[in-house]
Every structure is written in C-alpha cells, then in structure tokens.
Amino acid sequence: MHRLHPFDPDLHLKVCLAKHLEQSHHMECNICFESFKDTKYAFGIQENCNHCFCIQCLRLWRQKNEMVNYRSCPVCRTPSGDILKFPLWFTCSLSKKLMFACKKRTLALEKYYRYVAY
C-alpha cells in the first residue's frame, strides 16, 4: 500500500476509494443476504445504525406503515430518521455525519430554490 503524500490529493482519493470498494465487496444485506460484490445494488445507510442493508430492502421495510417501528433498524430497532442511498459502504461516524449533513443541506437548497423563476 502506498503512503499518502499530503500534497497529492489524487493519490489520496484513489487509495481511499479502493479501500472503501474492497470493504463494500465483503458486505451483505441483513434482510435478503445478497452480497454487494456480485450485484448492482446500492447500500441503504441509516443515520443512527451501522447495520448493512440494500436500499431496496430498507425502503420496503420502511413502507410497512402498520409497524410501530417502521423508521427503525430492522435488526436492532434503533430509531433512524433518515436513510442515504450510496454505492459504497462506510462505518466511520464522521464520514456518515458529513454525508447526511450534505444531503440535508442539498434538500434544503432544493426546497428554497424550487419556486425561483430563472
């Protein structure tokens, strides 16, 4: 593995992406048990939980309105208000917080600019 040079952002991005791809290929959905190595599924990343699900299974789980905890993790029942569709798996809490903050900011901007005439 290369040592990351502090002034070479391209190498850093390349190495980090390879690491996350390798980690993602070993994961499987906790509902359908499909491996992410052979499929084209995206991960459904929950805000407050680190269990791994494909986005299709997680959305199906959340559509069950008759369930009391439909916005919670199917495995540990930890409440999680939001989910993120992402092609890579990451467990770093700082990365996860950053991704959800970016999503919320983007949604807020879309809501704000929805009715602006161009």
UniProtKB/TrEMBL annotation:
PROSITE patterns the record matches: ZF_RING_1, ZF_RING_2
Highest taxon, organism lineage: Eukaryota
GO molecular function: ubiquitin protein ligase activity; zinc ion binding
Gene3D superfamilies assigned: Zinc/RING finger domain, C3HC4 (zinc finger)
Keyword Amino-acid biosynthesis: no
Pfam family, one: zf-RING_2
Domain RING-type: 29-77
GO terms of biological process kind: protein polyubiquitination
Keywords from the named record: Metal-binding, Transferase, Zinc, Zinc-finger
Protein name (database record): E3 ubiquitin-protein ligase makorin-like
Organism of provenance: Biomphalaria glabrata (Bloodfluke planorb)
Lineage summary: Eukaryota, Metazoa, Spiralia, Lophotrochozoa, Mollusca
